Amino acid sequence: MTVETIRIAAVLYVLSVAAWLTRRDPLARITWSIACAFYLAHVVAAFQSVHHWSHTAAYRETARQTAQVFAIDWGGGLYFNYLFTLIWIADALYWWQAGLQKYRNRHWIGAAVHFFMAFIFFNATVVFATGPTRWLGLAATCALLAIAARNRS
Which listed site, 4, 45, 46, 69, has its alpha carbon 20 to 30 Å from 10? Predict the structure, then answer.
């Protein structure tokens, strides 16, 4: 359940950002919200079955993974995950409350939110992932960058 929910969330995240970049705002908002729900299901599943509702266990696992990738025994990245969770929930709720146009018009706030989300997505799917997930994450990142570049001009 933990792996399946995050895979679905990641796919929906990519679809949502692609829809937002191409100004398909209603589709983007729906997929953004559903992706957030699957991400929250992933968090619950991970804390239930992997960390047994222990922040300390989650911190240690984050430190182990960070040490494996960067040779630094630090679990502080877990706090970035907590922040990511709060930002995604707040952003999805705001999008529904504010409406499509007001959401799009919050330029620097929207940019900050989406850059932070993209940073976490890239780390989760490329930096800390292995095998096919890493390559799919890299391909998704490149595709979203290409869409953004094309639509910017």
Answer: 69
